[in-house]
Amino acid sequence: MIRIGDNGLPQWDYPRYEAGEKVALFIPCYIDQFYPQIAQAVVEILHRLGIPLVYPEEQTCCGQPAFNSGYWEEARRVIRHFCRVFAPYRYIVCPSGSCTAMCRVFFEQADPENPQVGEVGRRVFEFTEFLVNVLGVTDLGARFPHKVTLHSGCHGRRELGILEQPITLLKNVKDLIYCELPNIEECCGFGGTFSVKMPGTSIAMGESKAANILRSRADVVTSVDISCLMHVGGIMRRKPEMRHIRVLHIAEILNSRE
User: Fold this and answer.
1) I want to staple 212 with a disulfide (CB 3.0 to 4.6 A). Which of 2, 18, 137, 182 is the partner?
2) Strands, E, within 161-252: which ranges?
3) If you average pLDDT over every residue of the chain, what do you get?
4) Span between the terminal Cα atoms of the chain, in Å
5) Tens digit of pLDDT for each residue in 20-50?
6) What pLDDT score does 165 carry?
7) pTM of the model
8) What is the pLDDT of residue 7?
9) What pLDDT, in 10s, does the model give residues 176-215?
10) CA–CA dist 240, 254 (Å, integer)
11) Where are the coiled-coil regions (predicted)?
12) Strand 2-4 with 10-12, pairing
């Protein structure tokens, strides 16, 4: 069941994980193709926590690009395939707030006549919320001696209520200095196909986000969504005063032992 918390963000009821239960990994397309080290970090962290993992090789996409572009019939075909592949698993963990929101919130809207779709979609958990809200883990024993700020992606925050989970995990990383991001609630302007359809607006929003990252005085910007960081990181690489700021998915920091 979902409700709105005092902070104005959605709050969910989470199931209780029983030791030994298998967890299926859903790795989004862009992580699989461009940032496989993020998936590797997720696997290593969950292995250290003693979680039995399964990676269904038949998995493809969550259908978000087609859904957001209005191609709902095409999206439904992808969503139904997703649900057939992941149907056997009680927990499906994904290192992306955006793709998790697509599964948990929008599967049911895309295919309301198919009850299996909504039921499987509600079993998908973003990586940091799975750690904090399902496993009850807030300290992974990581060490990362750098100044870090957090970009809070829109889908994760507005649809799933993900904000405090990554901040709590970051603040428990040894020697990490957490730098608050000014106007953290603002969008980075990526929005998947939005950045293709509205490039001027998208870049302007990304430049505003990059300026706030610079103002935070952090050396590293992280997020639960590498797609947002890909957009902002591309903008920062073109600005000499920002080139020193690295972009890293939060799983890479939580897996660090520097």
Assistant:
1) 182
2) 177-179, 220-223, 246-249
3) 95
4) 40
5) 999 999 999 999 999 999 999 999 999 999 9
6) 97
7) 0.95
8) 83
9) 999 999 999 999 998 888 888 889 999 999 999 999 999 9
10) 28
11) none
12) antiparallel
Q: How many alpha carbons fall within 13 Å on the CB side of residue 53?
A: 18
Show me where the domains of the chain are located: 3-134, 147-255
Q: How many beta carbons lie within 10 A of that of residue 232, not counting itself?
A: 25
What are the residues whose beta carbons fall under 8 Å from the beta carbon of 83, sequence distance 6 or more?
A: 107, 114, 116, 117, 120, 121
Query: In terms of Cα–Cα distance, which of 144, 149, 123, 119 is closest to 134?
Result: 123
Average pLDDT over residues 243-258: 96
pLDDT at 195: 87
Residue with tokens 């957001």: 68
Q: Which pairs count as long-range contacts for 75-83, CB under 8 Å and 24+ apart, including other chains?
A: 75/110, 76/110, 76/111, 79/107, 79/110, 79/111, 79/117, 80/111, 80/114, 80/117, 82/26, 82/120, 83/107, 83/114, 83/116, 83/117, 83/120, 83/121
